[in-house]
């Protein structure tokens, strides 16, 4: 998913993780086997890490009083055996621990006494352990805690009392547990970021209803069937909602009120429609709805979505766009792959000046219409158009006015030929894929001028001969013509073509294996003449110049 990079960036920020150069820390010899480094040159925080410790005693011995008591310490103890936890406490370290991470330590019980001396801890991660319940007694020792991460720790339930002792908890990560029960009053109203993804929730018990400060909410990969009356009622600050991979059968009504929403991920659910819920989401930039059961879009579905850049509607059951896209003036990427469209009209995207990528692959499109050619100004600059796996017999000249098109994929259709105006005006086209069609000639490409075309994929068609087919393709560098019925190749096929790679002269490669090319003296001559002109015919092993003599002898005989 394109979103995943950004998603992990969100999470890194959320968890306060830093990725950066390691700066020296003066006591690094004394604290071995623990290590340390400065977080940043200007910050007062030192990152201390102890990994693969055999006991907590070892940690205490290594770190006790090794840092000035006013230095902020971010302490991480990971992959360690802490069976003697109860014999010590963090107090003994004499450190101002502002961040504490205890990860992959196989912790199942956290004795309260151990966690004294953590009055300055703002960040606690207990992720990747096996905790049967939220350790309330431990959290009580950290009155200024703002961030808590108990991800992947086998929690099954969150009770009303669990976070009650933390007056200012803002970031809470509970992802990847087995949570199926949430107390009605379990979530603190101070929360700004909440991750409940990858759990076993089938109901939220109204616990998010009053969260007015929430900015990011992750509910993905649960078993939620409805979010009605479950999401924050006001949610004026909610910018991101991820409820993908659930069983939602209806758009959550509350989203209507989320004026600040910028990213909405609802993929892999069972939504039948959008019900006009998103009409006013003026700040929405990314909308992911792929893998649902969406059948219809009303013309005013996206009425005020001025900011929408990325619309993912793949793997639904749309048969028509119903003019719904016209208000999307910021749209850059439109993905409609794997739907049931039988026709696509370019009038559906008229005026969408920012639109660059359209994916219409794997539909049932047999007709392209609404040609843009007559427009006075070139309004769209579609860079990539995917129409592979459709039912097109012809292009009907519909792409004529699609200015700026660089990549066009028409593979796996039913194309039999190109008409004279099908490819006119595609002066920026660099890559054309017409493989797996029924083309019996490429003649039109000799009459049309495609000055930028570098890659032509036309394998698995019904081509029988190559004449002057490349004469309109002066920049061609790659022609895949494998698995056709080509018998003859004329010598001046590429006479007007001169491949250039990154501005430097290159060689045009023509792939011909899987064709019944007749090997005779004339072909050998053609191969040699073309090679002198930087054109290489490949896949003709049965007819290489090395058997020149035998061929000539054979034809002489
Ligand atoms: C922890 O302390 C108890 C008694 O105070 C002692 O018997 C035990 O050996 C100690 N364990 C470790 C691992 O130091
Ligand atoms: C984790 O702790 C449990 C007991 O809490 C123990 O049975 C198990 O062996 C420990 N696993 C490892 C890898 O130390
Ligand atoms: C809902 O919350 C109540 C009160 O907090 C709790 O008793 C109940 O178990 C919760 N139900 C679910 C399904 O989590
Ligand atoms: C087009 O919009 C109208 C009006 O909202 C609606 O009745 C119809 O079902 C929509 N058609 C499709 C195919 O989405
Ligand atoms: C469209 O979405 C599908 C998944 O639904 C994805 O595989 C494909 O790469 C997307 N197309 C584009 C152009 O991003
Ligand atoms: C065109 O689409 C087909 C089928 O989806 C794919 O295999 C092929 O790689 C695409 N062509 C190009 C040039 O990207
Ligand atoms: C080789 O290039 C020259 C100059 O562009 C051209 O006149 C000639 O026809 C070409 N020969 C072949 C076999 O393409
Ligand atoms: C040309 O040489 C290849 C092997 O290099 C051989 O398989 C093929 O039969 C030869 N063809 C002719 C016509 O001699």
From TrEMBL:
Keywords: Leucine-rich repeat, Repeat, Signal. The keyword tRNA-binding does not apply. One of its GO terms (cellular component) is extracellular space. InterPro entries: Dev_Immune_Receptor, Leu-rich_rpt, Leu-rich_rpt_typical-subtyp, LRR_dom_sf. SMART domains: LRR_BAC, LRR_SD22, LRR_TYP. PANTHER family: FISH-LIPS, ISOFORM E, SLIT RELATED LEUCINE-RICH REPEAT NEURONAL PROTEIN. This is Uncharacterized protein. The lineage of its organism: Eukaryota, Metazoa, Ecdysozoa, Arthropoda, Hexapoda.
